[in-house]
Amino acid sequence: MDCGLIGRPGVGKTTLFQALTAHSVPVTPGAMKPAMGVAAIPDTRLDRIAEFVPTQKVIPASVRVVDIPGVPGGGDSLGQVLAHIRNVDALTHVVRCWDDAGLGPADPAGDIDVMDGELLISDLVVVEGAIDKATRAARGADAEAKQRLGVLERANELLQEGRPLRDGEWDATDMGILKSYGFMTAKPVLMVANVSEDDVAGDTAAVQAVRDAGNGIAVVLCATLESEIAELEEADRGEMLDSMGLTQPAVGALAQGMNAALGLSTFYTAGEKEVRAWVIPESCPAPEAAGAIHSDIQRGFIRAECYGCGDLFDLGSEKAIKEAGKLRSEGKGYAMQDGDVVHFLFNV
Ligand SMILES: Nc1nc2c(ncn2[C@@H]2O[C@H](COP(=O)(O)OP(=O)(O)O)[C@@H](O)[C@H]2O)c(=O)[nH]1
Ligand SMILES: [Mg+2]
Is 131 exposed, middle or buried (0-12, 13-18, 19+ CB in 10 A)? Predict the structure, then answer.
């Protein structure tokens, strides 16, 4: 699953990408090619599990992040940028909330309109072409083609009204059809208000404009500051955060927000060697979750022994969980719950 950073040129996408990936990927300023990296997802539940289960290593889950070049004001490069946006699963829309000497005063609402407008128009072009094709295909007795045409016509209506496809009501089949066309306005989106160092409290009108665009939700951060924090040794971060009036780096909230936008949940494995977080689609079946660890465990799946991490925090040890009858044995049909701590039994 890939999460793409999008926004107008100069809003701080690459700076944020470097913060998220802890400067592990070399980037070329102004490059028209996307850069790809991995962001670790900070997780307080994971740290707490490791307090109860003595272990050698704690390994966080991660999300793949793609730094996509900014959407320019038209021209040849626009199509190139939009093609990259079609390929990711979810979007993080970065908006400039500081007054910039070169780019001018912050205009979040205006920038968001331009960005959303480009995505909408581009989806309209795709849907019109797709309807033509699907109409021809649906002339026969092909039920699948008829359904596809129905979805495309509904999509067209929404877009004609200037509304993004994510506003529509779609079932899983409809969503699959929309995905196959790479519609950008159908992708889940997380709004990010990129502020100056003085505004990390997020109480400005500019930040409010970004929140409004995100149905009340936006991650507020200062990308340059986050990038500097990411360069520091773990031990030196506290002091820097304190001096900025922050309790934890905002990239943590951002990575968690991306996960939620992608419809993902987390389960844990906990043993002597490692305590580790794994990311899976919400409510996915136990064997599929096992497959996130290794395909052999999925193939030879017998059962999952699990408990909720809350039980561990309440009862203090796996032994106590067992004694309290809270250790569950789940079969192939089990839908994973967020926060499960699991031991998979398998046979290959
Ligand atoms: N004041 C301020 N400047 C920033 C912030 N984030 C990025 N910048 C600056 O904005 C410029 C463009 O940033 P960049 O990450 O390359 O933007 P991109 O075009 O969206 O990838 C750089 O000079 C950054 O140092 C921020 O949070 N506050
Ligand atoms: Mg950039």
Answer: middle
